[in-house]
Amino acid sequence: MSILYGIFFALRQLLTSEGFPPKPQFEEKDVPDLSGKVVFPLFHAREYMRPNLPIVYLITGGAGGIGFELVKILYSKNANVYIAGRSSDNAIAAVNKIREEYPKSDGGLAFLQLDLSDLTSIKPAVDKFLQKERRLDAVVHNAGIMITPTHWRTVQGWDIQFGTNVIGPFVLQRHLQNILVETAKIAPKNSVRTVFLSSISAPLAPPGGIDYKNLESKGVSAFSAIQYFDSGLKYAHSKCANTIMAMGFAQKFKDTGIIAVSANPGNLNTDLLRHSLIAWVFFRPWLYPARYGAITELYATLSPEINDTSNGALIIPWGRTGPIRQDILDSCQEGGAVKFWDWLDENTQGF
């Protein structure tokens, strides 16, 4: 399969329903109260309420962009939400702004400091989280970076985009796995979710979705001298990897009660494009307000339409199941997704 086919597939999606999505069918108004009380029908005549452990969500990159919009929605419905990220200043500003906007919320907002580009920061952050919480209903791996300078690296030496968009979220997911499994035992069926963020650019990934030869050199490619072209391909590689991660999780942990999906949140006007003026100019006609991306993530996180038959699915704007490039789908169904999950596990031992 040539890169030309990937470009054709991505352009087709951009120019059709992913670039011009239909009206969302699951929005803020469709979200129930998330205060942590569960309502049970009793003899079909009346209801009673049973106190439960508070419902908790963890959103990486929740201090800005679509993550911020998702946090607002969840908090407005009385959920307890952790904003995970690097900057305490940005998180505090976000928390103050959200509390001002929703003064009547009974939910909670907290900051969890971690840096996805430095794997040594992740376990200590999760340890602090686990000291405070006994339940986690969903983790949304929302944080990411796009089309950065090609020489940028993570602390551990990975290409900055693959390291931040894939390696870091994988390690975070591994450390949160046990509490998600335990939550699935007490939460309503299919309600415990893991969401990995993909992109409309994911079809530009190499054949099968993962270029292991490239990963062996931690992201050094033959196109490194061509700044934006190389960075764009690396971004696509990382976003496709997120889709494959979701499918790998779904296959490997299908009996845990956790639903894993990937989501293309949409083409959005956020600071994700801050490193590339060229990309911003090109995509400008297709950019929507960040709130719409949060609606896609909200669907992936809470929609009752998602169940065990949706495990591993790709969610597209503004809350629908979408297509995955056929060779990538075939590879995943033939063991490629679990292979990649195991590769990630092997290459992040010690963190």
TrEMBL record:
Bilayer-crossing regions: none
GO molecular function, one term: oxidoreductase activity
Domain of life: Eukaryota
Signal peptide per UniProt: 1-19
Classification via InterPro entries: NAD(P)-bd_dom_sf, SDR_fam
Keywords in alphabetical order: NADP, Oxidoreductase, Signal
Keyword set includes Oxidoreductase: yes
Entry similarity comment: Belongs to the short-chain dehydrogenases/reductases (SDR) family.
PANTHER family: RETINOL DEHYDROGENASE, SHORT-CHAIN DEHYDROGENASE-RELATED
The name this protein goes by in its record: NAD(P)-binding protein
Source organism (scientific name): Dactylellina haptotyla (strain CBS 200.50)
Phylogenetic lineage: Eukaryota, Fungi, Dikarya, Ascomycota, Pezizomycotina
